[in-house]
Amino acid sequence: MSIDDTDFRAEVIGVIDLIELDTTEGICRFILGQDGWFKDVNGNIWVGSKLTACSEIEFSINGTAPGTELTFSFIQDPEEEDLIAQVKAMGVAAVQGRDARFYIQTLETTSEFFRPVAAPQLLTTRVMQNIGYAFEGPQIRRLSLTVEGAFNLRSKAVGGRYNTADHSRRCGHPNPSLEFMPTNNSDEQSLFGL
């Protein structure tokens, strides 16, 4: 089942935002901004928390390439092991240059949350860049993960053509209609015979 097969006229419809992080320690699967857990049709468990958030995806303007930031804010339990220390021990190398995959899970009925019939749909794959830490007061901690933005190629030198190869490199899938895109500005054939 794909997004095209989803019946958007159904009485109850829902979408769950999912993110999958491919780290050196293994695959981590999260639900963005929702509590609980979700088991998809492939048997993968996605864990959610309202403490997990994703920044807005900014458009690139004037050659900038803003990234996206995933954050997890929490209060450190003094009885538990320090989560920040554990992440620091793993280091940035655990995520740097590795994939972060963004999915959506469509639900046509409320019962599909417990027994989904469709697999999560991949929206985009981005590259993780850095891990950050913030301490707010004596107990509040924040972990952040920087992911390249959707328009990361805007910060590179101009020179790409708008063709199937460049479209595939930028978006991850080809656009066959670009085969017919003109490659030069001068047309030797007169317009309408004039």
Describe the structure.
- The structure is a single chain.
- By secondary structure, the protein is mainly beta.
- The chain has two helices and nine strands; from the N terminus they run ββββββαβββα.
- It has helices at 83-90, 164-171, and strands spanning 14-23, 26-32, 36-39, 45-49, 52-54, 68-75, 99-107, 121-136, 140-147.
- Residues 182-194 have a biased composition (Polar residues).
- Residues 163-194 are annotated as: Disordered.
Tell me the radius of gyration: 21 Å
Q: Judging from the principal axes of the Cα atoms, what is the shape?
A: globular
The major β-sheet equals:
9 strands, mixed
Distance between the termini: 52 Å
DSSP summary: helix tally: 2
Which percent range fits the helix content?
A: under 10%
> Which regions contain 5 or more consecutive residues with pLDDT less than 50?
none
Instruction: Give the topology string: H per helix, E per strand.
Output: EEEEEEHEEEH
Q: Order of strands in the sheet with the most strands?
A: 3-4-2-1-7-8-9-6-5
**Helix/strand/pairing class, anyone?**
mainly beta
DSSP strand content: 35-45%
User: What does the average pLDDT come to?
Assistant: 79
Q: Would you count the extended β strands for me?
A: 9
